[in-house]
Q: What sequence folds into this?
């Protein structure tokens, strides 16, 4: 079930009449979480299966796809690879083996870095997380208020402007926007650094979370913190652009939906201030959708990082995937794809569960 | 809503959408304009997209309106030929995926039961994959290149159509006018095609219009990653990619990027407006946030 | 007795894609203190719009003209800030669907107390204590336990009791009930109506009861006004109007009622035709195309109200047929 469907479903579900009064209150229905969790597990398995198919079955010769150029011309290495990964066994057996290797964290060895793919990914994940979180933060901070304004000024000039701008924001390739921004703000104006996470030669803060800004703060290195923020702003803003557009659009729709609800009219009829009605009743009513869309924006940011990180030389998962793809570093590409997809799927699960926490009606379960 | 019959879209309806709506009219102009550019590329382009000249990385001038690239090729000409690639791929993908989606959704909706359940679960599964990533993995496995990029995009693109068609078929299957047709002795598949298809064309058109833009974005992204269209073929995504290496040459990424933005934005605007006219019941929904 | 609520010549024009359309056309209504003033009519006849207009709850682009006085004070055209002090405080409203009119994500306690705190300046603890009293007053079990729960946890009837408690919270002079029982199961309806009747007697509140259920009217209402297509076609004490209807529309409504009191051979006689849509109202008396007694004159001019005594008025011309009409 997608989030969009659930948004509709909640209405009918919530409007069931004559629901029995419930005494016990649980924060969220166990059945609901279990159902969503199982769906996510199935999806994760499907992801691994697709990656397995792509890496072990579809390439004409998985051995040469997974081995480097040097090893490819060495028949012994190829034979060893085939033996090691049981390439001559049946498909299901092979998949079982693949899963077993996955469970042990064996994603193969990157041809580029000569490191296990897993440790490469672990090195780079915090950078992407830092960028993605900053981006979504910006997207929510800008997009939600803009969406509210757009809804409250419905069909007035401000609304038309915001709708056009947000539609444009959804039509712009983020990697292109990033490139233009870099050209302007770095190359022409020199306002921002030309990429990377710290100045050249800058020493990363001691690793706690792996996110430079957070680590610098935690260890009290203000200079490093300023540098890290300076490097973070532009890529995060670029990555946030589609999210801002998305949130503006969906917040507008959600607010318009809610504002015509009876309970908003009822709140006004109680003599509450317009600002109170907006804050307590309208915004609260729009929260589930806003949270859902924010979560989707976060998931999408992880995916878009593949395109944007490269532009800003941001050494995260995205640029790892890009560089591996360009150099045909097969195990690395598959590892990165698996990792990003799992993050994407997991965020979607979390969003669904959060949705239930925010909207008490979902707790009833079914 | 049972028995509600949406009229199939007519040219007059599109015309009505355009009248008194300059935004729609200009979006239509831009969208159709790019189609014309794509078709007439050999006639319009001032030079061959592959012809190299000694003027490397020269900015916009009277001779090269949009400047030249690192091999001295005319950016404008490459842009025009690039339209061919982008627009063609997008149209092929949208056409093919709407066909696949219609078949899957039609079969699932018509037969119902476990067939429906199985097919729609599978559709959900595909739907849950992030587009760029799967494209990245598929092209990495099959090898970079246009054909494989198209395959990768196709694998991902059909589920929304399947859902749309299934929903409509489910709604109309039990409706009176389909019952009437069957009572008259029309066979089941015939009924589906004859009576349900006209109801679907409106929403499908709305979805496809927006989807063309989305697919142009996706293909550009894949080419930007170097996995789609290969050099020396002119393509918007790979032209932008070249720009990452020459920050001093602002014209390299700017113009192909603008081309993408105009065509995608035009299609988004068209879709928005067409939805109001052709899909008043909103069966296509708003776009699922970000795909 | 001075009326609590007095509406004179109220006109409302609502915006539509094809310009403004008159949906309420010169409505007069009076509600005496501690009475139940019934308002009947088919859906779309302007009952709800009239009530919303009085409270200033219509969209800002709706045009409202005429007069509505609450205890002598003009409400139409009052600035938003002053209207706010009236809403919920002096005049409260109960909506048709209790599930839709309660916020699904806020606790009952929150929704019961926020206007008390705004209007009466009560602190959190005091407001909650009063909320418990109110819930007890509308006969809900375990009032204290309800405060931290959400509307979906209760049945429709219980939710409507919560909505009534909300309306009572600031001890208003008038409560407008907009079809408060229509969305409820039949078995629950009687309880809610009895509650309204008891509150009127115990707390001296005036209730304006909008409903299309004439049975409810005969049981509860003191006065009755019948709406047709944005106008009041007949008004008077409930007993008079229901027993001796003078307007053919009221008579038609009663004849269409499957009532055990009706003569057996009379049966149920629906009114022919359909009610007019606002914006496409017939000329003259809006009822004339469906009226069994219509004369040519009816299509030309809006009939002036005829006043039998100071309580019973109806808008139908006293023509030669009138005498034989209301047997």
A:
């Amino acid at each position: 079930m997608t989030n969009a469907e659930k948004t509709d479903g909640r209405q009918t579900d919530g409007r069931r009449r004559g629901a029995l009064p419930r005494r016990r209150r649980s924060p969220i229905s166990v059945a609901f979480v279990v159902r969503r969790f199982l769906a996510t597990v199935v999806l994760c398995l499907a992801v691994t299966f697709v990656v397995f198919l792509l890496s072990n079955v579809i390439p004409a010769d998985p051995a040469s796809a997974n081995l480097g150029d040097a090893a490819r011309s060495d028949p012994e290495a190829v034979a060893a690879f085939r033996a090691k990964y049981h390439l001559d066994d049946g498909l299901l057996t092979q998949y079982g083996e693949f899963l077993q290797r996955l469970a042990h964290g064996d994603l193969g060895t990157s041809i580029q870095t000569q490191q296990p793919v897993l440790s490469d990914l672990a090195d780079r994940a915090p950078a992407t997380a830092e960028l993605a979180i900053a981006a979504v933060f910006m997207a929510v901070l800008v997009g939600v208020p803009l969406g509210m304004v757009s809804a409250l000024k419905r069909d007035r000039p401000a609304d038309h402007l915001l709708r056009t701008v947000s539609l444009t924001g959804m039509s712009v390739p983020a990697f292109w926007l990033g490139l233009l921004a870099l050209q302007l703000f770095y190359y022409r104006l020199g306002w921002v650094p030309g990429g990377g996470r710290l100045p050249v030669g800058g020493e990363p803060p001691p690793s706690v979370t792996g996110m430079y800004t957070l680590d610098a703060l935690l260890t009290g290195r203000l200079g490093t913190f300023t540098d890290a923020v300076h490097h973070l702003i532009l890529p995060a803003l670029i990555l946030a652009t589609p999210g801002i557009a998305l949130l503006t659009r969906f917040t507008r729709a959600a607010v318009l939906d809610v504002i015509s609800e009876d309970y908003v009219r009822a709140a006004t009829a109680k003599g509450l201030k317009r600002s109170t009605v907006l804050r307590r009743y309208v915004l609260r009513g729009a929260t589930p959708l806003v949270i859902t869309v924010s979560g989707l924006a976060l998931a999408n940011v992880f995916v878009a990082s593949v395109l944007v990180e490269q532009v800003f030389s941001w050494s995260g998962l995205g640029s790892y995937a890009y560089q591996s793809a360009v150099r045909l570093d097969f195990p690395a590409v598959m590892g990165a794809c698996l990792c990003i997809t799992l993050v994407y799927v997991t965020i979607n699960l979390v969003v669904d569960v959060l949705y239930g926490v925010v909207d008490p009606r979902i707790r009833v379960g079914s | 809503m049972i028995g509600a019959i949406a009229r199939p879209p007519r040219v007059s309806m599109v015309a009505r959408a355009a009248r008194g709506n300059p935004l729609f009219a200009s979006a239509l102009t831009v969208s159709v304009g790019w189609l014309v550019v794509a078709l007439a590329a050999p006639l319009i382009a001032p030079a061959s997209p592959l012809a190299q000249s000694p003027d490397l990385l020269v900015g916009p001038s009277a001779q090269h309106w949009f400047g030249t690239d690192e091999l001295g090729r005319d950016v404008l000409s490459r842009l025009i030929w690039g339209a061919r690639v982008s627009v063609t791929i997008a149209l092929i993908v949208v056409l093919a995926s709407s066909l696949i989606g219609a078949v899957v959704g039609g079969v699932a909706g018509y037969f119902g039961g476990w067939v429906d359940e199985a097919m729609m679960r599978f559709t959900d599964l595909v739907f849950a994959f992030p587009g760029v990533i799967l494209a990245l993995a598929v092209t990495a496995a099959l090898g970079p290149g246009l054909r494989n990029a198209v395959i990768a995009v196709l694998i991902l693109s059909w589920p929304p159509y399947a859902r749309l068609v299934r929903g409509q078929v489910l709604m109309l299957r039990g409706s009176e006018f389909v019952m009437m047709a069957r009572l008259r002795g029309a066979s089941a598949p015939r009924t589906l095609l004859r009576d349900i298809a006209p109801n679907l064309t409106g929403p499908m058109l709305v979805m496809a219009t927006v989807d063309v833009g989305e697919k142009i974005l996706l293909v550009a992204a894949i080419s930007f990653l170097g996995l789609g269209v290969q050099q020396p073929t002119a393509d918007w995504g790979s032209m932008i990619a070249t720009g990452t290496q020459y920050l001093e040459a602002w014209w390299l990424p700017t113009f192909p990027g603008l081309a993408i933005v105009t065509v995608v934005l035009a299609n988004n605007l068209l879709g928005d407006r067409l939805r109001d006219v052709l899909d008043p019941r909103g069966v296509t929904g708003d776009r699922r946030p970000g795909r | 007795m001075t009326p609590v609520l007095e509406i004179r010549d109220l006109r409302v024009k609502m915006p539509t894609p094809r310009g403004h359309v008159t949906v309420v056309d010169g409505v007069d209504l009076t509600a005496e203190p501690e009475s139940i003033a019934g308002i009947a009519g088919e859906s779309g006849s302007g009952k709800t719009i009239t009530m919303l207009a009085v409270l200033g709850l219509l969209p800002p682009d709706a045009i409202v003209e005429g007069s509505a006085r609450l205890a002598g004070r003009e409400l139409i055209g009052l600035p938003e800030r002053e209207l706010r002090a009236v809403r919920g405080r002096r005049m409260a409203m109960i909506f048709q669907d209790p599930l839709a009119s309660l916020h699904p994500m806020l606790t009952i306690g929150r929704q019961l107390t926020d206007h008390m705190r705004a209007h009466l300046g009560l602190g959190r603890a005091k407001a909650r204590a009063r909320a418990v009293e109110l819930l007890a007053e509308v006969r809900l079990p375990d009032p204290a336990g309800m405060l931290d729960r959400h509307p979906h946890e209760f049945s429709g009837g219980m939710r409507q009791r919560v909505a009534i408690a909300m309306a009572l919270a600031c001890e208003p002079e008038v409560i407008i009930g907009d079809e408060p029982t229509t969305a409820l199961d039949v078995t629950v309806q009687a309880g809610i109506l009895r509650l309204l009747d008891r509150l009127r007697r115990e707390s001296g509140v005036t209730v304006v009861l909008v409903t299309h259920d004439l049975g409810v009217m005969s049981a509860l209402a003191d006065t009755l006004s019948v709406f047709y297509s944005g106008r009041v076609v007949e008004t008077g004490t409930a007993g008079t109007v229901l027993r001796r209807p003078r307007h053919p529309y009221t008579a038609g409504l009663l004849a269409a009622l499957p009532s055990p009191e009706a003569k057996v051979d009379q049966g149920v006689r629906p009114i022919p035709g359909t009610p007019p849509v606002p914006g496409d109202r017939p000329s003259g008396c809006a009822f004339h195309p469906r009226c069994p007694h219509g004369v040519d004159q009816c299509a030309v001019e809006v009939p002036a109200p005829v006043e039998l005594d100071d309580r019973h008025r109806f808008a139908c011309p006293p023509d030669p047929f009138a005498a034989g009409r209301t047997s």
About this structure: Confidence is low (pLDDT under 50) at residues 1-6, 286-291 of chain B.
